[in-house]
Amino acid sequence: MAGCGLIGKGKGGSGTSHATGWEFGDPKNGGFQSDDNYKQETGPGLVFIQGGTFTMGRVEQDVMYDWNNVPKRVTVASFYMDETEVSNLDYREYLFWLRRVYPSNPEKYGSALPDTLVWREELAFNEPYITNYLRHPAYGNYPVVGVSWKQADAYSKWRTDRVNEKILADKGVITIDNTQSGQNVFTTESYLAGLYQGTEGKKPLKDAAGTNRKVRWEDGLLLPNYRLPTEAEWEYAALGLVGNTEDELLTNRKLYPWNGTYLRDDNKKTRGRMMANFTRGRGDLMGMAGALNDNADITAPVTSYDPNDYGLYCMAGNVNEWVADVYRPLSSTDVAEFQPFRGNTFTKYRTDADGKLVRNEFGELVKDTIADYRNFKDGDYTSQVIEGDDWNTQKDKTKTNNMYIQSTKEGQFSSLISDKSRIYKGGSWKDRPYWLSPGARRYRPETESASDLGFRCAMTRVGSPDGF
């Protein structure tokens, strides 16, 4: 249990309070425990990303003339990010668990299934990928595709629960119950709320009086949530500027996640090797036989090519990646300077008439939205999604934003951009080099998917930002 907040200076976090002089962990004083010596463990699959300030947005020519990512200086807190994109094997583990735990709720499994028909094209022979790409072991280490934003978000929550469940089992606090089903399924939130009725392990935690107790969040034993990274986090991690700084001086602005401005390796030993998986030109997705330029016809294994200076693979090319933010063309003008993010929805747990927390049929705590800042009403038309409003009251305002407005019928109009439009970044095996720059951004409805769109997870860093 080294590194956990449960362990202070001896049993029960012994020592003396600096504030009161009372002894920590003394049953005579109530048994309050100290939380010194805590250090966050790195979750499975993650890499530590030390935060800092950087120029977010495009600094090269905007050849698409979108003007949707004007450069802005921001600061990102330290966090963790998946070393690779989530693979087919990773995602199939999730599907297997859903089918095993919810056999009487096939819709739960069905809602998580990737859309394999994203491979189908009218004038291409892609039928073998429909059958093979997700499930055949030949593609196990390839990035999962055909996953919507909502499915990626659900996978992240499931991963949180499985990781924390294993942490408790490894510590002997609980015993993994392979028969759990229905509402009695381990989730981090339901366990902390005391609603999960699992089997106690051989090494339960004890309070100062020696009585068994459940793990609390303040024990520091459980990890924060796996989640989709924010756009700022993703872009910061992709740039990997940690290798280009010296005493707060940026020595070389990057165009791509690797050093240099070329798409081929310029090192003597590996000169000419492609640095990412992308489309080089019309009809050229992998080069000529005997000299495949990126050694990938569609996607490539998630550990292909050299990692960037943070140790992250395929932050350009291979597949585009969902991020957490909703899309607005002018996000760079209205988000915060620290931890910029567009998409906040503030929630609270739902309770019944007796004040007890409510769980759904899958054992997840139900939450109600109390504030939604994806679409705040601040009087600025460009920050809102207007749908079905009176044209006469809004028509003058459309002049500054008519790229994003479609007239639906006389007296009404609607936007192409909504609160369900999510950003994706990184470029893919289908894309030209323009989209490989970390500053590039595009968007899709959160329920859509594509054959060149996947994701990776992130996790919040708690405590010191230096990682030590």
Automatic annotation (TrEMBL):
InterPro entries xrefs: CTDL_fold, Sulfatase_Mod_Factor_Kinase, SUMF_dom, SUMF_sf
This protein's UniProt keywords: Lipoprotein
Biased composition (Gly residues): 1-15
Organism domain of life: Bacteria
An annotated Gene Ontology molecular function: formylglycine-generating oxidase activity
Gene3D superfamilies: paralog of FGE (formylglycine-generating enzyme) (3.90.1580.10)
Domain Sulfatase-modifying factor enzyme-like: residue ranges: 43-336
Region of interest called Disordered, as start-end residue ranges on this chain: 1-36
Entries under Pfam families matching the protein: FGE-sulfatase
Descriptive protein name: Gliding motility lipoprotein GldJ
Organism: Aquipluma nitroreducens
